[in-house]
Every structure is written in structure tokens, then in C-alpha cells.
Amino acid sequence: RDGVPPYAVFTNEQLAAIVRQRVTSATALAAIDGVGEARVGKYGEAVLAVMTAAALPLAAAPAAEEAEDEA
Questions:
Q1: Cα 49 from chain centroid?
Q2: % of the chain with per-residue pLDDT over 70
Q3: CB burial of residue 11 (10 Å; 0-12, 13-18, 19+)
Q4: Distance separating alpha carbons of residues 22 and 54, to the nearest angstrom
Q5: How many Å from the N-terminal Cα to the C-terminal Cα in the chain?
Q6: Distance separating alpha carbons of residues 38 and 20, to the nearest angstrom
């Protein structure tokens, strides 16, 4: 976006915090140290879309494991 490479948008520490905290809201994203309202406004929607998409397989995993246990 705007010619900015992805690695220049957030630091490794911020990306790790986003994943560790499983951020799914703009408020949670803004609460991460060093992520201000400007970044949330500019990149938040894309970050949240990726986190939501990544969470879907995780949510389905326990159901798949239970099905395997029953077999």
C-alpha cells in the first residue's frame, strides 16, 4: 500500500504481539506498543482481515481433532 514494503509498516515485535494477542479489533491493534491511530487507520483493516482469516482454521481445529478421537 502506498509503495511501502510490508516489513516497514510494523516492527517484528509489533507483528509478534499482533499474533500472540490474536488481535481482532482496531482497539486491540491500537493498544499494541508503538501502533498509533494513524497506522490503525491506514493499515488496520488489512491486518484485521489477515488475522480473521488466520483464526478460521484455528477455530475449526478442535472440531477436527474431536472427530479423529471418535474414529
A1: 8
A2: 79
A3: middle
A4: 9
A5: 47
A6: 22
- What the block records as the C-alpha cell of 53 is 482469516
pLDDT tens digit string along 15-63? 999 999 999 999 999 999 999 999 999 999 999 999 988 877 766 666 5
∠ CA 56-59-63, nearest 5°, is 130
Q: Does this model's pTM top 0.85?
A: no
- Is 23:51 a contact under the CB 8 Å cutoff? yes
Q: How far, in whole angstroms, is CA 52 from its chain's centroid? A: 7
